[in-house]
Design goal:
Elements lengths: L10 H15 L14 H9 L10
Length: 58
Amino acid sequence: MLGPWAQNVGVGLKFVKHVERLARQAGAQKLFIAVLSINPKGRAFWERRLFYHPLLAR
């Protein structure tokens, strides 16, 4: 979870790219994430990056 100081300035995107790179280097084929139901902005962030939960899809 990022604090307000890190929101909408590219920190989250840099984090995602870093984690994806590490996962690929480790041979991972999938990433699993969790977002609290009280965090719609967090969910939207991940959905914009094509991470989604099929049971929660709108």
